[in-house]
Amino acid sequence: MQPVPAHAFASEFRALPAGDRVGFVADLWAARGWETSVEDDVVVAERDDERRRIRVTDPGRFGTPDLSGVDTLVAARDRDAVQSAAAEAGVRYVPPEKLRDLLLYGVERDAAAALYEEWFDQPLERTVVDEADEETALDTVRGRIPAVVGQQRALVGLLLVALVGVALAGPTVPGIGGPDREPITVGDVTPAEESGGAIGARSPTPTDGPELLPGVTRAGVVDPAALVSAHKAAVRNRSRVRSVVITGPPNASVTAGAVRQNLTTRIVNASHYRHRTVSQLSKDAENGSMARLGVYADGEAVFQRTVFNETRYARFPPSQRPGTLYDDLTSYLYRYVVSDDSTVHCVGENASGCRTYRIAVDGDPPTVLQGDIADYEAVANVSDRGVIRRIRASYTLPDRDDDGEREPVRFALDYRFETVELSPPAWLPEARNETAPVTTPTPANASENGTATSRATSTATETPS
Q: Is position 258 within any domain?
């Protein structure tokens, strides 16, 4: 099988978040024998007595990147104007096609394949459907879709999307905000609200085209709830790790008053899991405030610890806080993926058909996002079993700190499927003690409500998505 074609490599490289593009270039130069480090969007490569500074950037459709202080420019878009500017500045110009050549012919093929799969989440050698062949590919998929009876949906493979947005992205630490926090545009979507969508959200008008996957046509995601249902069914019996990283200015609704949020959920099954959220509330990591939320489910109870100015504990029955709540990505889809300006492609095939779908958004953001949004790009990959494996989104907001640069916002979601071993957190004994049921002289029927301490309330919870 041939390696990924140049045009597909260029599209996939451009779709990576800026930080991932820099990381990929750093690892590629390291595989070629250089010692590398990263400074913002610059890779510093050293070997023997040589030292090179490599800027990795997407110049956009009209811009010209800053070429001062660099020896090499790796551009995510090949543009004549950028190439000319690099030549005038004496800077080596590496567009996506040349970067692909460095990957294929500058390192051993096994190392190149491992590097590509690590950063792009796809095999280096695979069949890629050209745009000219899309109609033929669609006819092939149509032939494999069984007849639809009543309201049943044809489950053939899954596709995922592209995103970029400015609305609250996923779980936030309860009780944390700030004077600069914008109102949340989209409320957390509960199971009862799924059919109606998120507050303020508008789904694309369904088309007459067939569904490639539940809730997905060639027009994009037309029914997020159906797509999420397929995802939840596909992952339910698999141990997994879900990770989310959100960065941006604190006034962006997606960041919920923080400049960075890291969320990690390790799930064995619905009643055994561990979740952690760490929110950085200032760009000054050393002196800035940090907020933390931890959740631990041991099969008998779900314990929650929130740390921000004070420590709070809460306890819930597993039926109220199952680990499967974290697999409900409905609000993420509305906030980052549901857009009229989306395209759907098959990006990986095997003998049985399309193995991986991708939805890309490059233009208009989802309707729930508000504000002066620019540089909007998003991409998401979904396996043919309906698993939403990866979502990436990026865009910019107006300058907030008077440095003359727009403020970048990034969203990344990943699923990994692996054996998960849970270790109880160090705070668990205190959580058990603080949330132990209080006995009273008067008998009373036990309730199913969450038990909270005087330092916590049962409303201090995090909605998983």
A: yes
